[in-house]
Amino acid sequence: MKLTLLSHLLFLVTSILAITYDEALKLASKDGLLHITEKNYKQVIKNENFALIVFLTSEDSRVGCTLCTEFGPKYKAIAKQYMQNLKDELSGMYNPIDSAEDKERVIFAISDYLEARSYFEHMQVTAVPKLLYYEPGNGPQLSEFNNEFSFLSVENTDSYTRWITGLVPGLELKYLDAQPPAPKSAFIISILGFLTVLFGLFKYRKIAINFLQNVNVWQFASLTLIILFISGYMYNQIRNPDFYKIDNQGKIHYVAVGHNLQYGSETQALTVIYGLISAVLILLIRMVPTINKPTIKLLTSVACCIGSILLYSYIIEIYRIKSGSYPFHLWHVLS
User: Fold this and answer.
1) What predicted TM-score, i.e. pTM, was given to this entire model?
2) Do 219 and 148 have their domain in common?
3) Which family does it belong to (predicted)?
4) Which of 54, 47, 42, 41 has the alpha carbon at shortest distance from 19?
């Protein structure tokens, strides 16, 4: 009984003791990252004499965090590059170990939800990823970080490396210049795929040349890409939004209110509508003039015009749902 009580007290004391910069460096020396887990988060987060940059993520496929899987390898590469420059005396990077300025000493940390659920609960994290900055000595208040990177404005790797260098005195952008290593399997598959396509083009070069010189092929490809881009597929790939939303009353919303939000169902609906409008216009411009019978030509033309009006009405009504102040409408087809 006494031994059990003593072990619990020992665990409690070690869990609340602050970790020093030297200890943090040793823990992060392997891959440049200090891994925050369920067992060590209370100790690690008490950063007495160094700044702490923490990446909160969830790489489990069941969570489906696209930004986590995209940003994670880049963040790990940056942390590893920083550690390599720190160990290399010839790198030219400042030496924060002997610095009198605590902010110049920085540790890159990472924490996965499945490995540190209590830490995420203390932080009241409801969405990932998050990139947080703790000033030296600020860690004891788990939820009071000093700065948070906004993933809404991320465009490229420079966005968050500039954010980091803006917080750490003396750290220059060139010392964080790193690219995540490409998986070997992906590289091999890419090479094999390229060689296969090259062999196929050479063997069936006559068919390939005729195909590539076909105007209809390029028109169809261009139209498809235009529809995909204007429908919001790039937004979905970057943000990974919900397909729809259910409000507190149990009502399902397929269109997000506001120009900065979009649901997956909205993207698919717009894609179908834009595709149908394109098909109607192509029919009206290219097929109708070839019809010989005047009556059929007239009826087809009228049907195409009515179809265009209906389809445009759907698009404009979607705009009105997203913004109540949108002044235009053709026909309230959704009301």
Assistant:
1) 0.52
2) no
3) Belongs to the OST3/OST6 family.
4) 47
Please report the DSSP string for 83-141 in residue order. Answer: HHHHH-TTS-----TT-S-GGG-EEEEEEEGGG-HHHHHHHT--SS-EEEEE-TT-TTS
Whether 287 and 158 map to the same domain: the answer is no
Other C-beta atoms lying within 10 Å of the C-beta of residue 265: 18
Inside any domain, residue 187: no
The domain tally of the chain equals: 2
Residues 170 and 218 in one domain: no
Burial of 293 (0-12, 13-18, 19+ CB in 10 A): exposed
b (16+ CB within 10 A) / e for 148-178: ebebeebeebeebbebbbebbeebeeebbeb
Structure tokens, 34: 């200090």
Asked if residue 5 belongs to a domain, the reply is no
In order along its 335 residues, the chain shows pLDDT tens digits of 444 444 444 444 444 556 788 888 888 878 899 998 888 887 777 766 788 899 999 988 777 788 888 888 889 988 998 888 888 877 777 777 666 677 788 889 999 988 998 888 888 888 888 898 888 865 545 556 778 887 764 445 567 788 888 888 878 877 787 766 666 666 788 888 889 988 888 888 888 889 888 988 898 899 888 888 888 888 777 777 778 877 777 788 888 887 777 888 888 889 999 999 999 999 988 889 999 999 999 999 999 999 998 888 888 888 888 887 777 776 665 55
Both 60 and 144 in a single domain? yes
3-state secondary structure (DSSP) of residue 241: coil
Please tell me what DSSP assigns to residue 55. Answer: E
Residues β-bridged to residue 109:
34, 54
**Is residue 118 assigned to a domain?**
yes
The range of the structural domain enclosing residue 107 comes to 14-175
How long, in residues, is the chain? 335
